[in-house]
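Reading a protein record of the kind used here takes only a little practice. These numbers are not coordinates but entries in a learned vocabulary of local backbone shapes. Here is one such record, which you should read through line by line.
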Amino acid sequence: MPESQQVHGRAMELARMLTRPATRSWLQGGRHREFSVADMWLLLHLLETGPLAMSDLAHWQQVNRSTMSVQVFHLESRGLLVRTPDPGDHRVVVVHLTAEGRAAAREMADSMGRSFGAAMSRWTPAEITALEDLLSRLIGDLDAARARGGAPGEGSTP
């Protein structure tokens, strides 16, 4: 399928662009260069969802709990996250944003919104909606294909 190969190429180009240090710094307003992509995802996810169990975070990032623990410890040592036992089950560790972590995540989210807004300032609302719809569909289809074992040729139809 040549069309899907072209999409793959453009998707990889976008992934490379969004993970370059200069682009990340621009998206983050230049204030959070010290945050890795994984740090950004985690802080922004907790801002969106609120506190989550360590196991839920590991599942969301598709890593094991020990990998998640290392990342949480890194951000916790910087005063951005705190871990507490779940009041209903003390075996469960819940991860919360601190006030500083919440402020950093909000600042990143706001800066990213402004950056994308500036980049798409000449787009029509219909173009923005179409991109959002197609990206959502692609993300869902990629996740479903991965869950199925990624059999070639399987995907959603219009």
Q: What stands out?
A: The helical segments are 2-19, 21-27, 37-49, 54-61, 65-77, 99-119, 125-148.
